[in-house]
Amino acid sequence: MRRRLYFVLPNVKSAHALMDELLLNRIEENHIHFHADQQQSLGNLPKADAMEKSDVVYSAMGGFLFGAIVGLFGGMLAYMVPWWFGEVPLTVIPYCMVLGAIACAAWAAAVATAAPSYRIRSYKNEIEQGSILMIVSVPLRRLNEIRHRLVNAHPEATYSGVWPAEHILFP
Fold this sequence. Notes:
Elements: E1 2-9, H1 12-24, E2 32-35, H2 50-53, H3 56-80, H4 92-112, H5 118-121, H6 124-128, E3 132-139, H7 143-153, E4 158-163
Antiparallel strand pairs: 1-3, 1-4, 2-3
């Protein structure tokens, strides 16, 4: 289980320094992503892809649920009104649910890639002013260690949260 740490960095030099720090702390390069304005060149830093920049996963899950419900009603309608399709077995209901869930999940995920993530939208002003957003995915057991190391070693980096939310089990 991994958590995403979000840091706002002032420039590309700072981004390279944090990238090196994370690599030294054994965070793999494919778990570190940077997002900047279109005009700003990140050089060889790994850029954020559609999974980091949009809500694809949550949209697909919502579409899956919505499609299953619509498929349930469609299957019930096909079973209860047999003169449309002839003799319909009761198994048409789960088939319609699965078909509806898969189709709606794929459609919702495709639509979600066009809209930015709500997390990215909250950093829009900083990114337009030339800052760089760093998204690093760390194992849950190393979350506090990595966060404290980066905050202490790089005061220019502004820590701005964890996704999914931080949980305090016992106050």
